[in-house]
Amino acid sequence: xxxxxxxxxxxxxxxxxxxxxxxxxxxxxxxxxxxxxxDLDKVVYRLIDAEQYAGKRLVVVxxxxxxxxxxxxxxxxxxxxxxxxxxxxxxxRARAKNRDRVASLVASGRLDLRLGxxxxxxxxxxxxxxxxxxxHRLANDFVVICAGxxxxxxxxxxxxxxxxxxx
Length: 167
Hints:
single chain, 167 residues, alpha/beta, 3-stranded antiparallel beta sheet, 3 helices, 12 strands
């Protein structure tokens, strides 16, 4: 600080301001599930190009907008088999348009929705999924985990930054 002002030094200049807003986005570092096999190359935390997965068997994990959008985009690819696994009983946080898109794909048989399920393990050629009291081993090519992100809260606090989350 410099008097009542913060001083921010960048590679180009020094800036002084009364307030500094640090915008780090909503994702942060992807939140791992902590399941065996999560470190395999077949696991991704962000869907970039759904077309590259055409003809593949996929499991998408999560219940927010990013999970529903990923599952729907994948299910719309030729020859894909997509399971959307979510531990909750409903998609309370997702936008209505994403819930409607998923419902339409489920109704047409293009998307297998498993509410109340949990991913237990990932192997090179399969996943183990708990659904109710049953455990299923399912042949699988890729897993897309959309379980939110971990913010660098401790790092920010250690540097003297007060963290205040706004939604």
